[in-house]
Every structure is written in C-alpha cells, then in structure tokens.
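Retro notes, structure queue

What went well: the backlog is down to a handful. What didn't: a couple of records were mislabeled last round, so from now on we paste the full input next to the output in the thread. Example, using SalK from Streptomyces triculaminicus:
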Amino acid sequence: METLPEGAVRRCAHRVNSVHSTVYFSPDVRRELGALGVEHHRAVYFASRSAAFGRVGPGVVTATFHSFKHDLVAEHLPRVWDVVTPDQVLAARLRAADTTLRRVLGDELVVSPEMAEAAALALRAAEACERAARPLYSAHADLPVPDAPHLALWHATTLLREHRGDGHLMALTRAGLDPVEALVSHTAAGRGMSLEWLVRTRGWSMAELTAGQDRLRARGLLDADARLTEAGATLREELETETDRLDTAPYAHLGAAATARLTELVRAFTATAVAAGAFPADLNG
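Corresponding output:
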C-alpha cells in the first residue's frame, strides 16, 4: 500500500461523507417513502439506512447505528416492514438521491466530466474496503452500482462512509465510550450535533445527555462548562486517529494523487450543496 500524506484519509473521508449525507436532510426521501405509506421522519431514516440488511428488527439497527436510543428505534422497527419492503425502500432512496443531487448540485454539474471522474475514483477506493466486522458497509456492498455517474458516486460515498463508520464504532468501544458519551463528547469537540439536535433526532432526553456529560466529567474529560479538557481533547483526537488507521485501506489503494483529486472534487460538490441549503443551519453544536 502507498503511504499517504498526514491527514489525507480524514480530509477525503469527511468530504465524501458530506456528499453522502445530503440525502439525510433532504425532503425527497420523506416524500418518496411517504408515497409508500411511511410518514414518520424517524421511520423514514431507520428504514432507508437499514434496508440493505433486509427485514431487520430494532436490535440490529441499535447495534449498528450506535447513537440512537433503542426505545426510539423499537417504535418504528420492525413495524415499518409491514408497510413497505426493503427493496421498495432501496429503490425509493435511490430515486431520492437522484432528485436531491440534481437540486443541490444542479443538472450541469450532475452530468459533468468532473462528476464521472469523482465516481470512478470513489468506486476504485471502495474496492479496498474490508467486510469483516463492518456490517453496515458489507450490507451496502451487496447492492448494485447505479449506472448514472452521480448515483454511482453517491453509492460509492455510501460504501466509504459506512466503512469508516463501522471502524469508528470499533474505536469508540475500545475507548470505553457509550453512545451518549460518544455523542456529547463529539458535540463538546465542536464537530457534533448540538444537544438540541441530539434530543430531536437520537431519542435521548436532555437529562440523559447531561448525565453522560457528568460521567465524562468524572473521567476528567469534560470541564464544568461541558467543554473538553486537555485529556478529553486528546481522547477525541486519538479516536479520530484510530478511525483513520482503520479506514486507510481504501485511500491507500487509490493512491496519494488520486485521493487528493477525489478530495478536491467532492469538496467542490459539498460547497455547492451547502450554498444550496442542503444542510440545516443549526445542525452543529
């Protein structure tokens, strides 16, 4: 494997994730699944991201998504599969990705040579993703690659995103952070969702989130103002470094020059999407 410049894996992975995540905040997924009878926004999310597993229950989703309270997941799974099949959800999600990317990037960029180039690079990187102990990646890797370049790119960013995410859960477990502690420490680092978004989307109450902060204070990782201490900042950086290590294979397979080029391309796509309002203004804490 080729040695990559310091920070290259993380830079590319974060930009790749942004392209993939445009769909999570899009009204198009809700509209597509709403037409099939799935109307609650949480049911839409759980069904769309887990459909690659097939007809699974809440246990699989709680384990693999990690940051959601099990009670919230169990409100919607497996009941959603009585309304819609996983195959229907996968097709609806791909239609939504098409609509979303055309809206936030524009038709000209969607059919551009740069889009085709980015798709080819991202798919080449995904060739080196590892299946073992990576359930979300492995489930999505069984899906066919769409023909259209912008959808092929979105599929590849899904693979790369879930591959890194599966590895990140390994790092969190090794560090002894439970889901709430992982969430609030990420927020304290200035990179995660605000506490209000966590309450709104993850099923934890504000009391549960503040209790998680108290546990981190007891470990010397947060200060009285819920900011990371020096030890907390060190732990969060160690988590990201370990995640980078576990996520190196795809980008080493791609090579330094091609990884830099993919980063450049998806950074430009992300900037266009942000300018088009693809992400909520109050998302981050």
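Agreed that this is the format going forward. Reviewer comment attached to the example: The chain is about 65% helix and 0% strand.
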